[in-house]
Amino acid sequence: MGQTGDPDRWWHGGVFYQIYPRSFADSNGDGVGDLPGIISRLDYLERLGVAGIWLSPVTVSPNRDWGYDVADYCDIDPDYGTLADLDTLVRAAGRRGIAVLLDLVPNHTSDQHPWFVDARSGPTATYRDYYVWSDPSPGGGPPNNWVSIFGGSAWELDGASGQYFLHNFETQQPDLNWWSEDVRESFDDIVRFWWDRGVAGFRIDVCNMMIKDAELRDNPPATADDPIEQRLMGVKSVYNSDRPEAHDILMRWRALADTYAPGRLLIGETNVEQLSVLAQFYGSGNDELHGGFNFPFINAPLDAGAMRTIVERTETLLAPGAWPIWTGSNHDVSRLATRWAGGDLSRVRCALLLLLTLRGTPFLYQGDEIGLTDGPIEQTDVLDAVGIRFWPHYKGRDPERTPMPWANAPGGGFTEPGVPTWLPMGDPTACNVADQEAEPDSVLAFTRRAIALRTGSDDLSVGPYRSLSSPEGTWAFVRGGHTTVVVNMSDAPQAISALRGTVTLGTDRALEGTAVEGTLEMPPWSGAVLER
Ligand code: GLC
Hints:
Shape: globular
Bound molecules: alpha-D-glucopyranose
CATH superfamily of the largest domain: Glycosidases
Structural class: alpha/beta
Number of strands: 19
């Protein structure tokens, strides 16, 4: 229970941190990160001040999609360790006040999951109905025009039965049939399995896609005003995504979550373009997801006007009680230090300042806190199936998945010297944790100060958001009763007027301690928090 009496304050006011386990810390010198590696870095995460970590999948996977093709939902992949290691992690993190979220992948399994192996054995198989099967279209060929997110038809012919199965992603990732009550019950058990082990909750993979049109209707053709992905696919994803019935499943899990005390969290990968659609995933504010990732924000440029509009609209559209989630990077998009900041550390600091002071829970991606840029990936390095397929038009997601540079040392402190890492390490001399630990003005030091300020402040943790008017290229807002955030997101100096308070955090540390009564002169790409 927080100072405000709000039982959700620990995660509303807290900062979460996404770990991509394969690339976080390797304890056994095989070039692949693992659970004992994460445990060995908990002190670092505690000092960073995070309230929770989300682990990208650590469950059993043949790694067609690097963990997002699950072959056993209730066991740990040997690459990462054992269930006992996971239990140790949950306990050791808990002792440091850090909650653990796992990644739940309910839209599809691996084709090597025993359910699919059985389902494929024939039309009368026990688990046949766990997947989406259909006869060919009357003229032959796939049952309809649905296209996989990863390219090509979303249907694969099963030669033995003559029926097609659906895969919205890789062929090796068959979609589950969420119209089946058996599938729903199986997932109730999976969710309980982890909650009973003390896991705090889940990030739910593509939760807006789980259920498909029961009649498998053709998607309409894409039009010029559709987003680029849909134009490339040639169709709008109307019937194989964003179906209203997905909400029933989320409500079912929320009801299950609420049977646990303290409450367990459900944070959705709500990859939708419209904020009004995102808002629907919160239900009435307390009966669906606790939080949904805001993709319009992730996909926005680092531009004051564009971002402010998204934040204001989100604030307006979410139901009372619903809590926003803010992110700049994840394992699927270029890191914020590259995509938003082009490697410029002033821009990185502005982005971090925003993420850490908006109303809502920030999810930092590993490396954001040190301003880590995308790793160098050549065609011969590519392991992401999507990158292999679309190179050089799209180079895939490996650049944002390269190993965490812990130190300026061979192996980057990620693994032992001389061990080849699963993806290239990049150049740990350019950016690493140890060097920044020793530097009081580093991005890491700034991130720590920002998290500490946020955690210790009721205004920044849970206070309401209100925009202030400010010159073009800048963004100013109030949090709660006493805190103002101002960011100059332009290449020119800017004066922001009608301010009052003392700067308690500045992207430029020299600003800290300045008492402002009236106007604050802000250098290009700088930001500050003022308290009074
Ligand atoms: C989500 C994951 C992504 C994965 C896809 C299919 O978008 O974040 O990494 O490839 O789902 O599971």
